[in-house]
Specification:
single chain, alpha/beta, TIM Barrel, four-stranded antiparallel beta sheet, 19 helices, 12 strands, globular
């Protein structure tokens, strides 16, 4: 990676008249802002259909797109919605997303658009399905889940639970209308994404996406390919994913995802991962591998545990997998999210893989030897003020222990939340890291009201959104800083 800079902003956090950011004009406007601000990268969060707690990291599919992100005005431009439909979908402008209201209103609206699909558009959807291998199973999964109202492992048809061919064909006929609807929704998402990404790339901006290390138990992925996961005959895991207690949570984080059958995956040449990264590579230009340390060793928690305190480390696939992915996809830039409880073995794996790791400034201010302080960096890394799991810079300073704030002020040569925020941005921009990324909230100067996620807390996350496009004068200030430190 050449010396450059970028901004982290989820698609859902873009300003919008319709309650949530989308792939429409606001995304294009943000690409224009990034270009004016001298940025080279736009980092986003996963864009799959959100699951428990509205988290993009608990998705119904590792391949599919989130219907909530579809641009309604784009559908109207195709004659699938009218102005009355758009007017009914508009909501008061606010800085948080009301997912409950969106779930209640958005699908009926998309079904209305679907009812107006015919002729060439219907053929385009069919052609999309023919060239999209995962879509057939995903659309049936979504239709069946809606019909039965339960996770797949509780469906009343045992043969369907087991993904038996005869049951699949029977239910494809029974649920044909709903299957066609979900396929059409994915066609809209990916058609709009292709246009959006082309605009972003034409503006000189590349997109960094996040690849969650795990997938949800209740997902089309696990239902359709159970052999890739450690499950019993009923489709239940005996051990699940998580992390032990760390600086994010004193109880650890009990994610609950099924664990991979790494032995079976290796015997298959990691074909599932190849298909997964191939899909992600159609959406983004660079991939941040979430929870990179889990590829060296992962925390396995008994499925009946209430917290992640009880568990054990088990060996991950290491370079067996990373060598395959970097070999198959040389055109993709990979970034290792090497945070958490790290060991020499994790550092060695990142070094052997050649991937840049992450340095988070909000973790830096404990003592002069802290590896996240800029003077301790090696160039082959990515520096962040904070990630989506961190508070904003202002929020971090406000809530940090007094000794941490004092050391930060001494190190940065400033005092007060506002000045520390600006100094953190300068420190990251001026560091030797190949890439510097700041949360958009840090350039906007927001406090904890702009935080995206609090790890280990189930409710209230993934809701923050901008209420207006970024101001032009801010673009000029960000560009000046970016140029000053040789990142443009």
């Amino acid at each position: 990676m050449k010396r450059s800079a970028g901004i982290l902003l989820p698609i859902f956090s873009l300003p919008s008249d319709y309650g949530i950011g989308s792939l429409g004009k606001e995304a294009r406007a943000f690409a224009d802002f990034l270009r004016s601000a001298g940025q080279s990268w736009w980092q986003i969060l996963p864009v799959g259909p959100t699951g428990l707690g509205n988290s993009p990291y608990t998705s119904a599919s590792t391949f599919a797109g989130n219907p909530l992100l579809i641009d309604l005005e784009g559908l109207a431009a195709e004659g699938l919605l009218d102005e009355a439909d758009l007017a009914a979908a508009r909501v008061p402008n606010r800085d948080s997303i009301d997912y409950g209201a969106l779930y209640a209103s958005r699908e009926p609206l998309l079904r209305k658009a679907f009812s107006r699909v015919d002729g060439e558009r219907a053929q385009a959807v069919r052609a999309f399905g023919e060239r999209t291998p995962w879509l057939k199973e995903y659309a049936l999964y979504q239709a069946a889940r809606a019909r039965f109202g339960t996770p797949w492992y509780q469906w009343p048809d045992e043969a369907l639970r087991r993904h038996e061919p005869s049951a699949l064909e029977r239910w494809r006929v029974e649920l044909a209308e709903d299957v066609a609807f979900h396929a059409c929704v994915q066609y809209w998402f990916f058609t709009q994404w292709e246009r959006m990404k082309q605009y972003v790339n034409d503006a000189g901006i590349r997109i960094i996406g996040d690849l969650p290390i795990y997938v949800s138990l209740d997902s089309a992925d696990v239902w359709a390919e159970r052999e890739q996961f450690l499950l019993d005959e009923e489709g239940q895991p005996s051990k699940v994913a998580g992390v032990p207690p760390d600086y994010f949570s004193e109880d650890g984080q009990l994610w609950g995802n099924p664990l991979y059958d790494w032995k079976a995956m290796k015997a298959d040449g990691f074909g599932w991962w190849i298909r997964r990264v191939e899909g992600a590579g159609k959406l983004v230009d660079a991939i941040r591998i979430d929870h990179f340390r889990g590829l060296e060793s992962y925390w396995a928690v008994p499925a009946d545990s209430d917290t992640a305190k009880v568990g054990q480390w088990e060996k991950g696939p290491g370079m067996d997998l990373l060598g395959v992915l970097t070999g198959w996809f040389p055109q993709i830039t990979f970034i290792a999210e090497d945070l958490g409880i790290l060991t020499d073995a994790v550092h060695d794996l990142r070094s052997e893989s050649g991937l840049p790791g992450m340095k988070v400034l909000e973790f830096a201010f404990s003592d002069p030897a802290n590896a996240y302080l800029p003077h301790n960096y090696q160039p082959h890394c990515v520096c962040y003020t904070g990630t989506h799991d961190n508070d904003t810079a202002v929020g971090w300073y406000t809530h940090a222990p007094e000794e941490e704030r004092t050391f930060a002020e001494e190190y940065l040569g400033v005092s007060g939340a506002g000045e520390v925020r600006r100094a953190l941005l300068r420190a990251g921009q001026g560091s030797v890291a190949e890439l510097f990324v700041a949360q958009m909230q840090d350039y906007l100067g927001l406090g904890s009201e702009g935080r995206i996620n609090v790890p280990g807390v189930a409710d209230g996350n993934w809701q923050w959104k901008m209420t207006a496009p970024a101001p032009e004068d801010l673009a000029a200030k960000v560009r000046a800083m970016t140029v000053r430190y040789g990142r443009r």
